Amino acid sequence: MAQQLANHSLRPGKYVTSLLALALLLTAVVVSGPPAFAHPAHASHATSAARASRALDFSNAIFLWTTTAANVSGDSTIINNSVINGDPNAVLIVSHNLAPQGTPCECLYNNRPIGVWYNTGNAKWEIFNEDLSAMAVGLNFNVAAWSAPFTDITNERLAYTDVAGTSSGSSSTDISTIMTNNNPNANVIVTPIWNPASSGTTVINDHPVGVWYHSVGGTGHWAIFNEDEAVMPTNAAFNVYVSDINGGSGWPATVLVTTSSNTLSNYTIMSTWLAMYPGLLWITPDYDPGACTNASYCNVTYTTCSGQPFCDVIFDHNVGAWYDGYDSSSGWVGDLSVFTEDDSQMPVNVAFNVLEVTA
Predict the structure, then answer these.
(1) For residue range 254-274, what is the model confidence (pLDDT) as tens digits?
(2) N or C: which terminal CB in the chain sees fewer CB atoms within 10 Å?
């Protein structure tokens, strides 16, 4: 692992000084007027028939979305994808991708919580900065989208929109589904949504969010919480994707725990066999990860987590995904990683729920 880490010369932190000025310049630009769409979203291509089959099973659309001057307006980037255009009930899971595989790392950070919203004016979905700062041009986002909420009990997964309801004054909101109740081994991935059609409400939640598992009245529940411990707003809403980390079906769900051997500077490298394949990642910090026992899908250093299987580490940072590749004599090679958007040192014993789609 030490040699593996040493090979990653394109680590995000290397570019921070020069990129801060660039980021400030880019985020100061607000595109006015109706946006024009230069190109539709392009789906990731599977490298084998098996992966192609899994892609169809996983969602209606999986793609990388890049912000351009043509699709950025204010704090948002407007997505043009035939699967979700005109569908206010669609479910989108989104994460920032610092460097898509096979391309040099431009390493443009986006240190702010991101969410999604449906624009009834243009009948399209948009990704936006929760702090309402201007969306930068040149950012990449991994997007998984479903044309409607769904439950797939056979393959142990579901996707839906959860609305918090009346705030109890705490920093968290419980979710309740057939696949999360009494299941500490669920893998829960979330993306905030501003205006879910199911509730008719509009709520900003400008905070990094994570998930945790706890017991309420004898029933085990997963909860979504604000990592900075700010009160969860009434009617805050989240798109939720749930799978079972030990199920081994559908797209792989991984528990990644940071250790001294897989962490360098502001990022941590996945160390399952999945990391050998470039792909798209979706990440949610997990305060209390379950006991992942499937060696193919769990981080191999997972058992080093203090107090196994609970890490209990508050992680008040925005995170993104990164294919930390470099150009070698044999071509472009690298690993899938998770990084801190504020360039802070990645601490050890932080757990992340990670969902991966191999390219």
Answers:
(1) 788 888 888 999 999 886 655
(2) N
Note the Cα 168 to chain centre separation in Å: 26
Terminal Cα distance for the chain, rounded? 24
Cβ(270)–Cβ(337) under 8 Å?
yes
> DSSP state, 230?
P
- What are the percentages of helix, strand and coil residues in the chain, rounded to 5? 10, 35, 55
88 closest CA partner among 188, 161, 164, 37: 161
Which is nearest to 220 in space by CA: 184, 196, 251, 248?
184
Distance CA 64, CA 357 (A): 11
Q: Is the Cβ–Cβ distance between 136 and 144 less than 8 Å?
A: no
What kind and span of H or E run contains 25?
helix 16-27
Please state whether the predicted TM-score (pTM) of the whole model is above 0.85: no
Domain ranges for the chain: 1-359
Residue reference for tokens 């604000």: 226
Q: For the segment 70-88, what is each residue's pLDDT rounded down to a tens digit?
A: 999 999 999 999 999 999 9
CA distance 296 to 131: 38
C-beta atoms surrounding 289 within 10 Å: 29
Rounded to whole angstroms, the Cα distance separating 74 from 31 reads 6
DSSP structural state of residue 298:
B
